[in-house]
């Protein structure tokens, strides 16, 4: 098991005060974070930009040292035996980092195998097996600069597996990949956990990917842990924040305070969250979208119908929207929902 306990990371930086002057500054990227990853489990690490995900993954991968706190991998403390921990973990970053473009796929794997202290014969066997497993057997002796994006990403996976790690950290693994390649990669990740018992930590800006793969999710906000739960339970935390969208013609801004007043007195704790006005080419008129958040979007729509008629608005269409994981991440990070 990986056990991160009370870990804080503070970056020492410089803040520019002018053209030639700067002063020391400190950025707390991760604050007192505790998390664990079990073998065979896929754990998500989510949060908006700057939440501290990459910093956390880099600390777990031994690439960055925590300012305080402890990280243990299968009972071995990272600060006491970094090398033993390095044998047990590896990281796969999205995009095209961490590969040598002028080397072939096979040469890249040989190079990284050597870094992990594998013998030449063992690296050769592992490289061959992994290249075939990720579908790059035919391109093993081609320079990486000739690979497509998807091929580079598959080589990243092989590189991340070269030391047969017990724990694998994936930072945006499907970033910029076409849908079929991303799907294939998700299947591989699932197999690594369920069939080979690897513990996996995954960051992703694609909520569907997290919903599909992750058993549990840690949600970070500005370096702090907001909550840890199953993806479906996280969505349930904001289930009371449904949105009713009504597209209407005849809207004018003088109606906004009247609508806000009407909603404030409604029995559904409703709130007007957005009004967008667009020209509807079919109706050659302006259509305003009134978006109202409330615990029951359907009941809210029913309640809004007489109010719109009373104020001379004509409804073009209406729809209700239930929150998904993406909404939950945004709402909870903004301090809305139950976790606030
Ligand atoms: N090398 C660094 N020096 C100073 N501050 C840094 C450094 N790296 C990251 N930070 C700051 O630490 C905070 C967390 O950054 P981090 O990259 O870990 O977040 P993230 O959740 O991975 O963000 P993103 O989703 O944008 O990749 C941010 O405020 C960022 O500006």
UniProtKB/TrEMBL annotation:
Gene3D superfamilies in the cross-refs:
P-loop containing nucleotide triphosphate hydrolases
Residues in ABC transporter domain copies: 2-247
Superkingdom, taxonomy of origin: Bacteria
List where the protein spans the membrane: none
Q: Which UniProt keywords apply?
A: ATP-binding, Nucleotide-binding, Transport
Identify the InterPro entries for this entry: AAA+_ATPase, ABC_transporter-like_ATP-bd, ABC_transporter-like_CS, ABC_transporter_ATP-binding, P-loop_NTPase
| Alphabetical list of SUPFAM superfamilies matching this protein | P-loop containing nucleoside triphosphate hydrolases (SSF52540)
> Is Nucleotide-binding among the key words of this record?
yes
* Molecular function as annotated in GO: ATP binding; ATP hydrolysis activity
Q: To which protein family does this belong? A: Belongs to the ABC transporter superfamily.
Give the protein's recorded name: ABC transporter
Give the species: Paenibacillus albidus
């Amino acid at each position: 098991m990986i056990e991160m306990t009370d870990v804080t990371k503070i970056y020492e930086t410089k803040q520019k005060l002018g053209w030639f002057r700067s002063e020391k500054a400190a950025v707390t990227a991760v604050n007192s974070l505790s998390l664990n990853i079990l073998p065979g489990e896929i754990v998500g690490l989510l949060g908006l930009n700057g939440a501290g995900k990459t910093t956390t993954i880099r600390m777990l991968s031994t690439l960055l040292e925590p300012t305080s706190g402890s990280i243990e991998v299968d009972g071995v403390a990272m600060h006491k035996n970094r090398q033993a921990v390095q044998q047990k973990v590896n990281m796969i970053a999205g995009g095209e980092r961490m590969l040598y473009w002028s080397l072939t796929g096979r040469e890249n794997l040989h190079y990284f195998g050597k870094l992990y202290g594998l013998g030449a014969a063992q690296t050769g066997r592992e490289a061959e097996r992994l290249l075939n497993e990720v579908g790059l057997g035919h391109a093993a002796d081609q320079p990486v600069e000739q690979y497509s994006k998807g091929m580079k990403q598959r080589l990243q996976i092989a590189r991340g597996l070269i030391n047969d790690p017990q724990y694998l950290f994936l930072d945006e693994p499907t970033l910029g990949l076409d849908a079929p390649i991303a799907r294939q990669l998700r299947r591989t990740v699932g197999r690594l956990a369920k069939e080979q018992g690897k513990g996996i930590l995954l960051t992703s800006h694609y909520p569907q990917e997290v919903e599909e793969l992750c058993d549990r999710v840690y949600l970070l906000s500005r370096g702090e842990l907001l909550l840890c739960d199953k993806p479906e339970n996280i969505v349930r935390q904001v289930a009371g924040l449904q949105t009713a969208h009504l597209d209407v013609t005849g809207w004018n801004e003088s109606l906004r305070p009247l609508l806000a007043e009407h909603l404030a007195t409604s029995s559904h704790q409703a709130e007007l969250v957005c009004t967008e006005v667009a020209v509807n080419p079919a109706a050659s008129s302006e259509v305003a979208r009134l978006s109202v958040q409330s615990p029951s979007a359907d009941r809210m729509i029913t309640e809004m119908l007489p109010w719109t008629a009373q104020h001379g608005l004509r409804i073009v269409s209406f729809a209700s929207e239930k929150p998904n994981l993406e909404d939950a991440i945004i709402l909870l990070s903004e301090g809305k929902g139950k976790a606030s």
